[in-house]
Structure formats: C-alpha cells, structure tokens
Write a structure and sequence with these properties.
Helices cover 77% and strands 3% of the residues. With 320 residues, the chain is mainly alpha-helical.
Length: 320
C-alpha cells in the first residue's frame, strides 16, 4: 500500500459539476433563484427564533433551549453547503481545492449526525414532558439539556472523523470530477483507488446507523406520546396534539427517509445521479426551512414573545 500511495499523484483540486442534465443557463438560473430564496428564508426564520429566545427569559426552558439549538444547527447545515450550491449554479462547473472540500465533507457529516441525535433528544424531552410530567423537572433542566446537546455534537464529529479517515486511507487517483453540488463522503469515495469495498460498506453502515437509531427512538417516543394523548378527555386537545405531532413527523420523515434513500441509492447500479443530487438538496434545505414554522412560529409562547419584541421595538422608535 505504501508503494501504491507513493506512485499515485495527490489530488490538489476537485471539479464540482452539479446536475448532469440541468446544465442549460435557464435551468441553472431557476435553481439559483429557488435555492437562494429558500436559504434567505431559512436564515430569517432561524435567526428570528434565536433572537426571540435570547430576548425573552421566560423561554429559557429545556424545550425552547433545544429548539434554539436546532435553529443553530439548521443555520450551520445550510451555510456549510448552500453557498457552494449557488456557486455551482452560476456556471457549468467550479474548481474547489482538495482540503476545503474535505473540511466541507467533515462538517456535512458531523452536522447531519448531530441533527439526527438532536431530534431524538427533542423527542426524549417531549416524551418526559407528556408521559412523565411529575418527574420532568428532575430529569430535564437547562444544564442537563446543554450537556446532552454537547454529547450530540461530540457524537456528530466523531462519526464524521471516523468516516473521512476511513476514506482518506486510500489514494485519490481517479479523475478529480465530482458529480454533485457540494463535497460529500460518497463523492470522495468514488475517487479512491484500491480495494474500497469494505470501507464503502463500513461508511454505509455508519450512515444507516446514524439515521436508523435516532429514527427508531423518535418513533418509539411518539408512539408513547400518542398513547398518552389518547387519554386526553378533550377532543379539541387531542386533535391539536395529533396535528402538532403529525407536522413534526412530516419534517422528520423527509429528513430521515431521503437521507436513507440517498445512502442506499449509492449502492444501486443505474441510479440517476441527478435524482441523488436533488435528494441531497432537499435533505439540506427542506427541514431547516420548515423547522422554525413547525416547532416555533406555531407555538403560542413564541408568538406572544414575538409580539412583545415588536412592541418594545416600536416603543423604542417612538421615544427617539
């Protein structure tokens, strides 16, 4: 292996091509406008949520702390990938230095993994609040929530570091063209030379574990929550709870189902690369766009806090 590594020139730059079929100027302009508009709404919604949380001390509870952490994750995930997507949509292809591409891959894996575990943590918080309300204050408080959030971040970066290290053990000697809108682990793996079969399935196993383990726990938590909700005497209260849980599950399903589909499609011969790219784009932008609406802007406490913030701003302007 050492001799093989020395005989293969190292990759210095990588070329991102974007979609294979949507390469005409009109299609690229449409994609650029759609993704840019979505990204601006993501930043607006999540930054607004963070401002509301930090300005209202009554919201400094574990539930809203976790929601604020999700907003930070959504901003980080989209900021890591969307600028590269926009650059790709402005021309036929772009050249990216190898090291920044690897860094982007590490952040993409770590942030996605962190969000999966963070969503499971949010389900755990709701499970305790609804199914074990008498024990909630002892089991979940701000300091404990912050520690659990930190564990999610650590787990995310450990998964990213292990996956990328496995891939970079091999020399990258194939044509330095990546058919994608940003750098990801599969794209790097396709450039590797040598016997990468075991590594490929190991990376797949890590990815599926990251998706399936939190998803199974989330489903378990929501089933228990649903059983508790069914015992609510008020029909209106039951419908409200089911509607809220249903919208949560919609976004979670989009994130996990598309992620699992992308992981598996990489191993299915004949899968369209454009479909895979579109799946990655939806996976990166749809949940961050919908999370502020579903988790927060429809929450009465957030709405009241937002109105108070607007009134304070208007009062400050009148005083001036």
């Amino acid at each position: 292996m050492a001799e093989f590594n020395q005989s293969v020139p190292s990759v210095v730059h990588l070329i991102l091509t974007g979609f294979l079929k949507l390469r005409d100027e009109e299609s690229r302009k449409g994609l650029f406008g759609l993704v840019l508009t979505t990204y601006l709404f993501i930043l607006l919604g999540n930054f607004l949520l963070i401002v509301i949380f930090t300005s209202d001390r009554t919201l400094h509870t574990p539930m809203y702390l976790l929601i604020c952490g999700l907003a930070l994750l959504d901003i980080a995930i989209t900021t890591n990938t969307v600028p590269t997507m926009l650059a790709v949509f402005t021309r036929d292809d772009i050249t990216v230095p190898f090291v920044p591409c690897v860094i982007q891959t590490i952040f993409w894996i770590s942030l996605f993994t962190t969000e999966c575990f963070h969503l499971a943590l949010m389900a755990y918080d709701r499970y305790l609040a609804i199914c074990k309300p008498l024990y909630y204050s002892n089991l979940m408080y701000n300091t404990h929530a912050l520690k659990l959030m930190a564990c999610c971040w650590v787990a995310g970066f450990l998964c990213a570091a292990s996956s990328v290290t496995l891939v970079l053990r091999f020399p990258l000697c194939r044509p330095n063209v990546i058919i994608n809108c940003f750098c990801d682990i599969v794209s790097l793996l396709l450039l590797a030379c040598g016997d990468v079969i075991i590594t490929s399935y190991t990376v797949l196993l890590i990815g599926l574990s990251v998706a399936f383990i939190p998803l199974i726990y989330i489903l378990f938590s929501y089933i228990r929550i649903a059983c508790s909700v069914l015992r609510i005497p008020s029909r209106k209260g039951r419908m409200k709870a089911f509607y809220t849980c249903g919208t949560h599950m919609l976004v979670i399903s989009v994130l996990f189902v598309i992620a699992i589909g992308v992981f598996i499609s990489d191993r299915i011969p004949g899968t369209s690369m454009d479909i895979r790219i579109m799946g990655l784009i939806i996976q990166n932008v749809f949940p961050p766009l919908m999370n502020p609406v579903i988790y927060c802007l429809r929450t009465k406490e957030i709405q009241n806090s937002f109105v108070k913030m607007l009134k304070r701003g208007a009062l400050a302007c009148n005083v001036r």
